[in-house]
Amino acid sequence: MDNKQATLELGTKPIGKLLARYALPAIIAMTASSLYNMIDSIFIGQGVGPLAISGLAITFPLMNLSAAFGAAVGIGSSTCISVKLGQKDYAMAEHIFGNSFTLNLVVGIAFGLIALLFLDPILYFFGASEHTIPYARDYMLVILAGNVISQTFLGMNAVLRAASKPKQAMAATILTVILNIVLAPIFIWVFNMGIFGAALATIISQGVALAWQIKLFSNQDEILHFQRGIYKLKRDIVKNIAGIGMSPFAMNVCACVVVIFINAGLSHYGGDLAVGAYGIASKVSFIFVMVTIGLNQGMLPIAGYNYGAQRYDRLMKVLKYAMITATVITSTGFIIAEFFPYQCARLFTTDKTLIDMSIEGIRIHMLAFPIVGMQMVITNFFQCIGKAKISIFLSLSRQMLFLLPLLVILPPIMRLDGVWTAMPVSDTIAAIVALVMMARYMKKFKRQMNVSIQQTSDK
After folding, report:
1. Residue among 420, 326, 457, 317 at smallest CA distance from 379
2. Nearest Cα to 67, choosing from 318, 340, 273, 259?
3. Transmembrane ranges (predicted)?
């Protein structure tokens, strides 16, 4: 199929079929990615020990900070590309692609180098102890050294989805999963490299997938491809990418700050193993969050294209389908967390104390999950249509306006349970706020939809 024809179908084919076509590959890719992330932790927990799980949890804020820059460039550029393709401005879409590639390289190298220079102070600030910092340091030395590979790989995958190549994006992610699952146990057990080996397997896997992506974008027949004259950064393009990417950037930066507070509270009231329990609980919830992110990634090109083409009826339909699907996904996570927490915790460790702490943590942490999916879709929807300020507000509200104050208020009253309880309470409040914001803007979209229908009938 012609590449331009593939993008034109975003405005003509039935929304349900389009969402399935674009979301399923992304969901499969995100599921595979989350499973490999989870399996990586299982290898570390079972092959290195319970304190290694705690050390890995200490790295979460730094990983979130790295992801913040990756999301700002990847999601910002892919959204801009989707809108330009909807407007049939293929030349500008090419320049956005070239600028995004340059930004990924620059930001990926800069972040990795700066973080490596101050690694130990950063890890201690994030809650590392003398017992956990050796594991956290060994892991992040490799991850940060290869940060430019990780960031560029994720950025190119976002562009593949925007360019109507969801299956290729899925294949790239699955390739990293397969390679990592093969390499991680070899490095950990056969070569006795421990947590350092697990990180090395991750970077090598992403490097191989990135090489394949570069080969794909080297094909001159593709609607977006490498060519001269598109890599020099242009102020307007960078400004647009940053403006839209600010929402996921802010969300990941807030996640970094929040995890620092969570780790500090857990360490203070429960010790290093409580931090490990959070690491396990977050890995379990991460699967369902990533599946929902995959759904959102599938929604992005459809919503962006139809918004650019002023097809508001189709825009509302993709939002509806995505919200229903997301609710089913996160409700499934809730059921598993409440009824099978022991089985989840046992995957990661044989340490009885850590298992017991993880069971309670998993149940409380995912208590509000049935409504989390809907909140994620609404936040992503505003991002898809370029409403960066609203998306940023919704991203910040859950973490900064609700969760952070609760992490300060509840632990002195409820001690360890207060840290865990703050999470579902903030999720619930954030979901209510997102629904109110969506209801407010639904009226506006319906008016625009009626105008669009009237203009079409007049023609």
Report:
1. 326
2. 259
3. 20-39, 51-75, 96-119, 139-160, 172-191, 197-217, 237-264, 284-307, 319-342, 362-385, 392-413, 419-439
